[in-house]
Each structure stands twice: as C-alpha cells, then as structure tokens.
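Notes to self after the call with IL:
- keep both proteins in one doc
- input above output, always
- annotate only the second one for now

Protein 1:
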Amino acid sequence: GTASFSISVFNLMNAILGSGILGLAYAMAQLGIVLFFVCSILVAFLALYAIHLLLILCEQTGVKAYEKLGFEAFGLPGRITAAVCILMQNIGAMCSYLFIVKYELPNVLMTFMGMANDDGSWYLNGDYLVVIVTVAIILPLATFKNIGFLGYTSGFSISCMFFFTGVVIAKKFVIPCPLFDSPSFDHNNMSVTAENNSHLQLEVNQFTTAENKCVAKLFALTDRWAYSIPTMTFSFVCHTAVLPIYAEIERPTPARMQKVANTSIGLCFVLYSLASLFGYLTFYNWMEAEMLLMYSYVNASDVMTLIVRLTVLLAVVLTVPLTHFPARKALTFLIFPDRDFSWKIHLGIMTFLLSLINVLVIFVPSIREVFGIIGATASTMLVFILPCVFFLKIDPRPMKSAKKISAAVMMCVGLCLMLESLTVIVVGY
C-alpha cells in the first residue's frame, strides 16, 4: 500500500464523521451529560474492539472486505447478511444527508431572498428541493464508475465538521438562555410554516409552550432516550471502511492499523463530545433532533450561522455520492452476484436507489427515526454483532479463550441493545 499513516487516519475519520454529529446533542438532552458520556465512551470502546477483531480475522484469512469475511465465515448466507446490513446502513446515511437538505435549504434560500415568512412558493418546499438537488447534483456525481475523484471532497467535509464544532462552541457564549427573552429572538425568523414543515410545527409549538429550563442535567432519562444509543452507534460506524483502508496503508500490520483506528475514533469522539456538549449547553431541554435548525430559529440571517449551514449543506450533498458507492455495490452483488460490469445495471440500480431514498425522505417524519431505526438495526449489526459472530466462527482458538468469551459477551450486548431500542421506538409510535 502507499497511503501514509495520516492519510489513513484522515480517510477513516471521513468514514466516521457524518450527519450523526447533528443528532448527538439531542441524545445528550435525552440522557443528561454524565449518562451521555458513559454511553458514548462505551460505544466508542466497543467499536474499537470490533475493529480489533476484524483485523485479527483479516490477518488469518487474508480477506480485505467486510462482506467477504462473511463469506469466509458462513459462505453465501454470511455474505448476503453483510451486504444487506451495509446496504441498510448506507441508505440510512444517505437519507439522513438528504433530510438535512430538506430541512435547511428552504430556510437558507429564504434568508438569501430576505423573506421573513414562507409564502408557499414551490421553491421553498423542502420535498421539491430534495428532488431537484438529487437530479441536478447527486445523480451526475453518482454515475461515475470509480470513487477516486470524490476523495478530495472528503477533506472538505472534515474541515466543515471542525468549523461547525467551532461555531457551536462560540455560539454558546452569544445565545442567551431563556431564548424568548432576548431581543435578538425574532418570531419572524421562525420561518416555519405548515406547508413545508408540518413536523417542525409540532416541535415549535411544544417549544414555545414548554419552558426553556436553563439548567444542564447531569442525569436525565426522558421518554425518548431509546434513540440515543442507536444515534451513537450510527455515529461511530466505519467498520466497512476499515479493511479497504487497511489494504492501502503502507507497512500494513494489525497493530499499525489499530493505531489508525484509535486515532480516528479518538479525534471524532472529541469532536462529537464538544459539539454535543456546547450545543446542549446552548439550548438545554429545547434541543432538536437536528441541531442546525436550532441556530436558524435564533437568528436566521446571522452571517456565521448562514456560512455554517451552507458548508454543512455542501458537505452533505457531496457525501451522498460517496455513500451511494458501497450501497450500489452491495445491491448489485445481491441481485446480480456474478455479472460483469454493465452500464445498464450500474445506472439502473443507481436510479432505483436514489428514487427510494427520495421517497423515504419525503415520507418519513423526522431524521430522528432514521438515526434511531437504522442505528438500532444495521449499525448495531455492523459494529457489535457481525464482527463477533465472524470471529467466533473463523478464529481457531477454543471457545473458552478470553478473546472468544469477550466476543460472545459483546455480541449479546449488541443483541440486547438492538431489541431494547427497537422495542422502545416501536412502542413509542
């Protein structure tokens, strides 16, 4: 391989960082600060342990792809299971990115046009905008056969996340706490109308009625806490990218790749923690499932807020084709396992995937559901369950060895988390 240590860290960070950063402050509001840190340290640690297991398997089998490990362990069923989970995870990620477009773009356009209220024009309707962005920007980028040229956009999206975190920290000291008491809070800026944002209407009403408690809770378990751990799991998924990055690193040894993983997850953990902590300390119990919106409520025309929202929008739109790549690969494998490359299949599957994602984004009520449900199923499978199952099957050690026991324990933890989160989310409907 030719990739240096720092480039590998960079690539892995790009696989980790994503829309999850916008959902984590909400998770903190549901758990309280202490519980949030306990849970996220646990999730990050388990994610690293899973990478450790994957690297051991990689050494033993010489395989450098996640779904091929599934094949080594259980033949075709293993490979299909892995492909389905990868497909779901990536569809979930793409939906969460387009949700951000659906929420943010109408508000950004209104700010640019200097409009105080949504006059019901079609170009301020989030649903139309998502379709337009998909056809005009994402579709052309997703048609490419190779992913290489998208690499430089990853640098942009990482710097965008750093910038976002910086602004969140700075804003904590600018935005007053009981929000409505401040003169800067202008009701015209709410720019939320029933047409484009009925789901937000509900949130805003609950907003203006529930009082803004300006006290940080160290422990809080609200009725929506079940979304929190899936959101964290969703935020640390990078396990499908670990093996391809391992294949490209110079002087590849498991220890060196583990260092890359530790560094990447460590840096992302710091970024996530800062963004969620300062976001939470700005809005307390009013925190939304999509953090960026909060800043536009306060003052939509604020230049800094506008720049952040534009960079996040751009980063997100450029990340969709990147995420689409493995999703298309997984789906192609599921439907046409042994076909050579054909443009017909390539473009057909692309059109199907992008249409599916658009339909989901238009009809699913909130980004919270995406984080919760995908986080509880596909992310939990990819991070906690599959690496352990593969390890238990492939590794030659006896079942009573410490490594095997710890893998079995982690698998059970993953299964419990999955069932528990899903139950609470489904019952909550």
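Protein 2 (the one to annotate):
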Amino acid sequence: MAKPCLDVTFFKQQGKAIGLLFLSVIFFVLSHPGRLWPFGVFSTGFPVLAYISLVPLFLLVRYVSWKSLWLYGFLYGTGVYVFFVSWLSSFHPVSIFFVAFFYGIFSLFLFFFFKFVLFLFPSYGWLVQALIWVAFDYLKTVGFLGFPYGILAYTQWSVPVIIQTADIFGIWGIDFFIAYTSALLSCLISVTFVGNSSWNKVGNIGQRLIKAVYKYKFCILFWLFYFIFFYGYGLLSVKKYADFQNAPTTEKKTVALIQHNADPWIGGIEAFQKNLDTLTALTDKALKNTAVDFVVWPETAFVPRIMWHFNYRSDEARFNLVTELLDYMDSKTVPFIIGNDHGEFGYNQKNKSQILDYNSALLFIPKENTYPPDPKIYRKVKLVPFTEYFPYEKTFPWLYQILIEADTHFWEPGDDFNVFMLDDFMVGTPICFEDTFGFVSRNLVKNGAQALVNLSNDAWSHSLAAQYQHMSMAVFRSVENRVPSVRSTTSGQTCVIDCKGSIVSMTEPFQENYLVEQIPVVDKNYKTIYTRFGDYLGVLFVLISIATFLGGCVRKIVVLHNTKRGF
C-alpha cells in the first residue's frame, strides 16, 4: 500500500502547537491595556487572563520537540510584541520590527530553559519555569536595553487590593504569583490529560486529576496561603491608606496639571508660540478661584531652550518667546514645574566641546529665580534606548549614523536623583519613560520626595493603548514607595494616583484640558521596605534560577554517570 504524500499526524501535531501558541499570545496581550483587532482598545486590560496567560505557553513547551522549540520560542516573542506595542510604528515603521525581533531572540532562549528544566526536574520543572519567568522579567528592566513593557505584574494595575505588597516586594512578588499560578495549572493539566488515551471516560480523567492534586497538595496549599496573604495584606493596606487620605488632620497640597494636547511632530516658532498660548490659557483657567500650590506642565512642553536662548540670544524670535514665558511665570504667585530641553556646554563621547542637551524638568519660583532664569533642574537619568540615547557611537558607527539620519534627537543622561523643594514640601520629577522603572522613583523618594511628579509626552504615538500601558506601570510607583503621584502629560493620561495605587481623577485623553486636585502630604522620613532595598527580590529570583539550573545540571550529570557505572 502506498504511503500518503502528506504526514497527517505531523500536521495534527503542529496544529495543536499553533493553537497553543495563538492562545499564549492572545492571553498575554489581552491581559494588559492595549489594542487588538477585533477587540479595539481595552484600556484596563483583562487582568484575570494574566493568571492563565502562561498555561498554553508552558503546555506548548512540554508538547513540541526540541527541533521545533526554537521556532515557537521566536514566534512567541515576536508575536507578543508585534501586537502589544504596535504603536511603536508611529515613531518609525522599523522600530516595531526591531523590538519584535529582539524579543523573539530573547524568547527563543527562554523556551530552551523552560524545556531543559523539565528534563532536569521531571516532577517539579514547572516550578523552576515560574522562577525563570520572573528572572527574565527582571532582566528585561536592566541595562541600556531595559524595557519594562510587558511584565505580567503590571496587568494587575486596576485591582488595588492585589498590588499592595509592592511596598514589600516591588512588582516581583506579584509577578511570581501570576507565573506560579500558570505553571501550577499547566502541571495539573499535563498530569491529568497528557498520555491519557481514555479522553471520553470522565471517571478516568477524574481519578488522574485527584492523583495530581494529591501529589502536588503542598504546592496547592502554598498557592492558597500566598493568595490569602496577598489579599489580606491588600485589604488592610487599602483601608489604612484610605483612612489616612480621608482624615481631616491630613495635610494636603493642591496641584494644577496641564494637558495641552500638542502634536510633537510639528515644530517651528509658530507651533512653539501656539503651544505656549495654549499652556498659559489652560493654566489661567486652572488658577482661577483655586488655591493652587504648584503648577505642572508636561515633558518638553515649552520649546525652545529657556536658559540657553535667554543667555546667548542667537535667535531673536526664540529669545522673545522665552521672555514671554518668563514674564508670564513671574506674574503668578505659584511655583511652576515645566518640561524643557536644557542645553549647556560640555564634552561629548569624542571628548569634543559641544552643547549637551538634557531632557529636563525645571522649577521656577516667581520673583525668586525667573529673572534671570536660574531654575532648579532635574535632568532625566534613564533615557529611552536608541531614540533618546545611544552610547555606542564608537563601537557601532554604522548604527549610530542610521539613527542620526532618521532624525533622532539624542540627549545626555543626568547623573543625580535630585528633588525639588516647594516650601516645606519635596517632590521628585521622573520624566516620561522613567516612571516605568522602579529604581528611579525609589531613589527620588530615598532623597526625600513626598510625591512623584511625572512629566510625560506620549502624544507622538497617537495611541490610547500606549498611554494606558504607560500609566499602568506608573501606578506601582505610588504603592512601592507609599507616596502620591501626579502625571502631567501632553495628550494623556494626565491623572492623580493615591498612595494605594488608585486613580483619583483623570482628564479625557487627546483634549486640551487641565486637572486640579489635592494630594496628601506623607511623612518624608517613612520609607517602605521597597524604598530601602529596591528590587532585591528580582535579583534573588535571578540568583535562585541560576543556582537551581546549575544544581540540576550537576545532579543530572552525577545520576547519569552513576547509572553508566552501574551504581
């Protein structure tokens, strides 16, 4: 009998694998704020999906062969980031493919480790998979290429009771709880169904499930205690900080947040003048009949450079615009924190003297430091890789040239987490991308900040999904350090976040608007465990994962060696 020209079994196997891959990508993307056809924009995401988002992934790793593993790992990483951060194409069409390719390679190696630990630990490899997932999530935030978008813990941003342990563990305790849940479920499903030829016999499946539950009873109990601790601590913390914020004795400050809805892709003196007119008009409305303590404008809200053009006056139109701004601020009675491109002479990577640009937040206090302009300055420390900062000009001159030709504007990184003093109230000003990293806000609070004042500009993305993804991460900075946060953004999401991570109020996106809100004054001497020790748990997950993996390799080698010798 002739063999069929198509291997039907092969296509059935690959069909199952593709189905698991599809579910892995869809569950991951839907659990975060985002946009996905045909669902449209889902601003809060579906946080419950996060707990099962890795189940099909872990089953896929168990199911596919070593030969196919690499392909599915690459497709997973690529697929997730193509859909998750599709708004990156607004910056440059190539950027989304670069990010997707990078995380495809990243996931390729991740899948290798996931499968290899199942070989090293046949019964408890699933637990090591959860450890490795969190370790890799932490590594995604480290170094020049650090990009925190897509960490599973951030899916829970809209569920305050779940995220309260961030003041102890940072986001890593939450991240592990989610990964552990998925890994445990994948193990129970695998033990119950894989290899069971009697799928139609419910009793058989039930018996296997009971045996699986009994075998992993302590792991299930650990999950239960983990959940009770998270939920119980969350309930107590939410009540504690709600009582503090609502207490009549709690001192409060009133802030005016301006959202001028400008298009950052449009430049020129006419656009700069229009932006200033909009900013001042909105500020006047915010200050009317309201006792405001300080005003915040978004990241690079005012262009051109204030101090540079006031001091050197090489361009009359820009100098006139700067003096118009200074006159306006000096006529008010409240401090202004504004985003501006600050330039000063210095030395570049080739040790040549040039103007060094800093993405900065400037504090102006009327009648004190407006004329001549001498503001307090915070220079953005953590810059966006490639689009704001590329320190490898000498190593990769060809890539540097490509970025320059793409009209990329590079900044110099700041080197100090300095805070602003507003009378007796201290604030830290993480700029845009910086509030997606825990360490920036942590260092500002360590230096005395009683509130985080974020200046952001996500308008370039023209994406509501991008703005919600950004804000979803900012929520955790308040919980980690137990300080309120305010966000003044160009097009959204301008909002106030309280100490327990709840959104107190928020403006409509993509509109010219302002927000006036009160925030509580917290004790600047109180520091949470996270504020004091930072991402210690993330580092610990990396170390435990490495030690477990290496220990498993040594153990397997010893076992194989002894087996070969007949022991």
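Annotation: The chain has two domains: 8-245+536-565, 251-522. The two ends are 48 Å apart (CA to CA).
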